Amino acid sequence: MTHLWNWVTVRLDSERGQATVEYFLVILAATALAIIALKWIQGSGGGLLGNLFGKVISWVAGAF
Q: What's the rounded mean pLDDT across residues 38-44?
C-alpha cells in the first residue's frame, strides 16, 4: 500500500504546474485573437474603429 501511495504523490507532484501552463496558453490565445481582430479593424482604413469610438463618445456625451 505504501508503494501505491508513493506513486500517487509523485504523479500528482509532477502535474502541479500543468494548470499554470494551461492558463498561460488560454491567455496567449485570447491575446492573439484580440490582436488579429484589431489588425482586421484597422486594416479597413480605420473607418470601423473610428466610427465605433465616435459613436461611443457621442453616446457618453449625450448621457451627461
A: 74
